[in-house]
Amino acid sequence: MPLSPEAPRAAGEVLPYPFEQPPGLAQCPMYAHLRETDPVAEVRMPSGDHAYLVTRYEDVRTVLSDARFSRAATLEPGAPRLAAAPQNFKSLLNMDPPEHTRVRKLVSREFTARRVNALRPRIQEHTDALLDAMAAAGPPVDLVPTFAFQVPVTVICELLGVPFADREDFAAWSRVFLATTSVTKEEMLGAQLALRDYLASLVAAKRERPGDDLLSALVSIHDEDDDRLREEELIFLGISLLVAGHETTVNQIANSVVALLTHPEQLERLRKDPDLVAGAVEELLRLHPPGNEALLRITLEDVELGGVTIPKGSAVLPSLSSANRDRRQFDDPDVIDFDRPVNAHFAFSHGTHYCLGSGLARAELQIAVASLIRRFPTLRLAVPEEELRRPEGMLVHGIASLPVAW
Questions:
Q1: CB under 8 Å to 322, separation ≥6 — which residues?
Q2: Domain total in the chain
Q3: What is the DSSP annotation of 39-97?
Q4: CA-derived radius of gyration, the chain
Q5: Would you tell me how many other CB atoms lie within 10 Å of the CB of residue 271?
Q6: Does any domain span residue 32?
Q7: Per DSSP, what are the bridge partners of residue 69?
Q8: Which phi and psi angles does 223 have, rounded to 5°?
Q9: How far apart are CA 252 and CA 183, in angstroms?
Q10: Buried b / exposed e across 176-200, counting CB within 10 Å, b at 16+?
């Protein structure tokens, strides 16, 4: 039964999580309710473990930046977890400093602004080719598989040096990899193993025949650098870049298009002034980020947060989407404002685990959104907004199917 935010709650009541999502892009009203009444609320995750859901901006920033909230501790035996199956490997996403600092420094040497800027013309070429194919096919089309999926997948394949022909395979494994309740524990573990084997084979191929791509550069760091990446780190870093490098952007392209098509005044403003696209992308990231919550943390000691004492060893879920709508941080937080003067949103997280690929994602989003509305000035939803559905049981937060016409 859906939770009603207006219903009275007993003191200390544990809420089932995740909350039921409304149709379209609407945020579940429970988040707004918790921000005002219970900003550090205890919830029961799909695994059955309990966690503290953090919903206010300042508290979320604390969780994301304070070393007492650990990602590495999520790998400890018996640690609380979100999904039924644990992620049985160490990657950049679940390291703490100083180990995280060492690995991220090595990767950052290759994942540079120069490399992203050099990719912009190629991103535009790929985008234009996809729009040509859409125009030739004619409306209606489902924008998710034909455009939102293809843009970032093409780019991440080129950046990492992953064969484009393998996109359907690794995309399927990625969706299972990011699931919470939509698949079985066995399927989750199987997807982890499949991705590990796939990346191990790619690493071996790059070692034999290196190319001008990021994965080849990472192999070189592993083989030659004094600080070097360990083989396991190299493989699972590749998994992290491959999965995060397309799944989040696929969902954010779809979210952004729906938001614009359901706010015609803002869409028209962007059509008339394409230079607004950077601000528009930031505002749509704030309002409709591709993930509701950041990655789970574990407290390393008792922590006082939002008037609640969180015991040592507890799971903490910082809600990015809720923090991004906190009226204490943002004026008129539910309103789209391309000219918002300060927009320190958490769509790319914050602190140690701020998204390494945020520059690439911004470039893809700006090019995809601007090119789409320029090419199809009469673009519109081909179904009522209330028929749009989000994928269920997933860490990412997008639109399952997006029929459009023009």
A1: 27, 31, 32, 34, 35, 55, 56, 60, 292
A2: 1
A3: SEEEEE-TTS-EEEEE-SHHHHHHHHH-TTEESGGGGSTT---SSSS---S--GGG--T
A4: 21
A5: 15
A6: no
A7: 299
A8: -85, -25
A9: 23
A10: bbbbbebbeeeebbbbbebbbebbb
Place of tokens 């990625």: 174
Helix H segments across 138-230? 143, 150-160, 167-177, 185-208, 214-224
Q: What is the pLDDT of residues 207-264, one digit of tens each?
A: 999 988 888 988 887 665 555 667 887 888 888 888 877 888 999 999 999 999 999 9
The structure's pTM equals: 0.90
Q: Is residue 316 part of a domain?
A: no
Per-residue confidence (pLDDT) for residue 42, from 0 to 100:
97
Q: What parts of the chain have a pLDDT lower than 50?
A: 1-4, 6-8
- Identify whether 187 is part of a domain: yes
- Whether 306 maps to a domain, the answer reads no
- What domain range is 206 assigned to? 84-295+335-405
**Partner residues linked to 298 by β-bridges:** 70, 315
Distance CA 10, CA 12 (A): 6
**End-to-end C-alpha distance for the chain, whole angstroms:** 38
CATH number at residue 269: 1.10.630.10
Digit-coded pLDDT (tens) for 68-78: 999 999 999 89
